[in-house]
């Protein structure tokens, strides 16, 4: 099973790992695009005004530019420890047992605008680049990533559960992947899309899938696994699952 996670704008700072070595990252076929984007971000950081405009940053976010300027020299962290925010708080890899963390490292991968896809143990620095960013003198990120990342995902040979946000799915869709929508259900039975707390619930799903000893081979078995864990999951056919969360739980547990 391969579970695709979105990245986060926020990153844990620092790290104890050696500086970025693109050749050591998983999926070496992505190295040429990774190298091109790393070089472009470092060059862009040398012009703070242009970098802030391209990356959508305010003058107060100068630290983000400093991170991009130091991509090849900054210390690294494993990818699952680099990203932070609501989804990663719910995933909470630091609380996992050794066996659970080993499964998480095998099963989880993060979609990244800069690196394409990174596995849990891939050592990466903090950086700033979003899926919708346009970089000067380069094609769109979708144009760069889709030809190399799309085939990589297509030949995974595993059940793929795609929890990425829409902008990261657009960089390279994972054909045949199971997706999960989150809906809030009110006491009267009416439902609405969960927006702000969507990441927290997907983070809990990701933790379950990362740590379970089960190996679901298709969407039906995946649905059964989630239901056994006490989640209200609906499947109307195809590869889309709907996680239904009581309205009171949306806020209380997020």
Account of the 3D structure:
This protein is an alpha/beta fold. It has one domain (2-252). It contains eleven helices and ten strands. It has helices at residues 31-45, 48-55, 62-69, 79-82, 86-91, 98-107, 141-154, 166-171, 198-211, 219-228, 247-252; strands spanning 2-5, 77-78, 108-112, 116-119, 123-124, 160-162, 178-185, 191-193, 233-235, 240-246. Strands 1, 3, 4, 6, 7, 8, 9 and 10 form an eight-stranded mixed β-sheet that branches. A two-stranded antiparallel sheet has the order 2-5. The model has no long low-confidence stretch (mean pLDDT 93).
Sketch the topology as an H/E string, one letter per element: EHHHEHHHEEEHEHEEHHEEH
Low-confidence parts, pLDDT < 50 over ≥5 residues? none
Helix-strand makeup class = alpha/beta
Number of helices: 11
End-to-end distance, in Å? Answer: 26 Å
3D shape? globular
Helix percentage range: 25-40%
Number of strands: 10
**Number of domains as seen in the coordinates:** 1
Mean pLDDT over all positions? 93
Percent of residues in β-strands: 15-25%
Please outline the major beta sheet. 8 strands, mixed
What value does the Rg take, in angstroms?
19 Å
């Amino acid at each position: 099973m391969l579970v695709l996670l979105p990245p986060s704008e926020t990153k844990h700072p620092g790290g104890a790992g050696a500086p970025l070595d693109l050749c050591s990252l998983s999926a070496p076929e992505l190295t040429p695009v990774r190298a091109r984007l790393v070089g472009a971000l470092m060059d862009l950081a040398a012009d703070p005004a242009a970098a802030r405009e391209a990356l959508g940053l305010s003058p107060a976010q100068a630290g983000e530019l400093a991170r991009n300027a130091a991509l090849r020299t900054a210390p690294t962290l494993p990818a699952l420890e680099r990203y932070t925010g609501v989804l990663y708080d719910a995933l909470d890899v630091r609380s996992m047992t050794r066996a659970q963390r080993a499964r998480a490292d095998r099963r989880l991968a993060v979609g990244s605008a800069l690196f394409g896809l990174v596995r849990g143990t891939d050592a990466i620095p903090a950086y700033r680049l979003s899926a919708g960013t346009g970089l000067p003198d380069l094609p769109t990120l979708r144009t760069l990533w889709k030809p190399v990342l799309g085939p990589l995902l297509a030949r995974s040979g595993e059940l793929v559960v795609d929890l990425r946000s829409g902008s990261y799915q657009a960089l390279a869709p994972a054909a045949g992947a199971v997706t999960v929508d989150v809906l809030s259900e009110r006491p009267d039975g009416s439902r609405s899309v969960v927006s702000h707390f969507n990441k927290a619930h997907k983070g809990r799903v990701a933790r379950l899938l990362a740590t379970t000893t089960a190996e679901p081979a298709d969407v039906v078995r995946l649905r059964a696994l989630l239901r056994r864990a006490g989640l209200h999951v609906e499947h109307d056919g195809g590869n889309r699952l709907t996680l239904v969360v009581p309205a009171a739980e949306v806020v209380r547990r997020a």
